[in-house]
Amino acid sequence: MKFHFKYTNNLVNYLLKIEKYKTSLDYLFLPTREKQRMMYEAKLKKTHFSTSIEGNILTYKQVKQVIAGKQDNKRISAEQEVQNYWDALSFLEKESRQHTKMDLEFILTLHDIIQSNGKVKRIPLRGETAPGVLFAVSDASTKQVEYIPPAWDEIEALIDELINWYENNQDLPVPILSAIIHYALVTIHPFTDGNGRTARALATYVLMQHDYDFKGFNSFEEYYMADLKGYYESIQMGLPVLFYSGRENPPHLEIWIEYFCKIMALNAEKIYEQAIEASRKDANNVIKGLNKKDLTLLRFCLENNIKVINNKDLSVVFGVTPRAISKWMNEWVTKGILIPNSGTKRITSYRLAENYGDLKRSDLGFIE
């Protein structure tokens, strides 16, 4: 397969914004519990909104209850659908850690999980239709035909071409790679059902593979759900209904790629703002209950980038005797602010505990 696009001003701006927030997030310290919380919430959102796009009626709260609940053999189809998507995301996380490459088998396995009825089994590619009948995608409410994909016997070859294109274009910006994979799989439409969810999941895997999933915090499916008309119009790009009437030539993809990258940039900004808030929240918890003397110690260490602290230095800072500092050192060790840095009996130096060493002056209430 071949794909054409050009770098418009808007697209370049979106890509720069994505890089800005990705880099900022890479250098932002987040405690483990905050990372886990944000990853869990993002995964819930991906599950909820990606299934909602396809008509799943469960609310976010109900999706959360399904995922948190024990295995239920009497789940209704809507509950099974969200559990499947959650399991598919877990599968992608595992495969990403193992650096598994995408191929036809990978896509089939992913789709099997997404379309599972509780037992994962091989679901075949879209098959042959009756003579004179074309497989068509229709609007659920109006029943109007929206898209007629390529013939069933071309699917495997088209997927092979897509995988080859992907492997040979790794120098493209990752958001563009992800956008094109999303578009291409929906266009090939290899299955009778589950194409949209599989395409969105596969696009997420591309981001995971290249460390562009924002530490697992990304969930731009919620933007698609809030703008379903824009989402569908952008991926259709005003092209003819029939695949063979222009999609195979191939078309220019600026409309869809711009839309995809705009959503990704918006989501990146939101993620960074949430991460900043989470890091500050944790900092507030760390310094909660500290007195003025404790905060002065922390400020001195942070401003001077001091890793190892001794009595003599602090005696000058606080204007008290070394004996008084020794007493305070014991108090700071008891509070967990300092950790002995030398010996166990005659301690001559200390260092900041890890959860205090990552603070900033602004966390203490001082202007940077």
Topology:
Layout: H1 9-26, H2 32-53, H3 60-68, H4 77-97, H5 104-114, E1 137-138, E2 145-147, H6 155-167, H7 174-188, H8 195-209, H9 221-226, H10 228-236, H11 254-287, H12 292-303, E3 308-310, H13 311-318, H14 322-335, E4 338-340, E5 349-352, H15 354-357
Antiparallel strand pairs: 1-2, 3-5, 4-5
Description of the molecule:
It is a single chain. The protein has 368 residues and is mainly alpha-helical. It has two domains: 9-281, Fic-like fold (Orthogonal Bundle); 289-364, Arc Repressor Mutant, subunit A (Orthogonal Bundle), CATH 1.10.10. The protein has 15 helices and five strands. The protein has helices spanning 9-26, 32-53, 60-68, 77-97, 104-114, 155-167, 174-188, 195-209, 221-226, 228-236, 254-287, 292-303, 311-318, 322-335, 354-357, and strands spanning 137-138, 145-147, 308-310, 338-340, 349-352. The longest helix has 34 residues, at 254-287. It starts with 8 loop residues before the first helix and ends in an 11-residue tail after the last helix.
- Could you report the average pLDDT, rounded to the nearest whole number? 89
Strand portion, in percent?
under 5%
Work out the oligomeric state of the chains in this entry.
single chain
Tell me the major beta sheet: 3 strands, antiparallel
What do we call the CATH homologous superfamily of the largest domain? Fido-like domain
Number of domains: 2
Anisotropy-based shape:
elongated
Enumerate how many helices there are, as a single number: 15
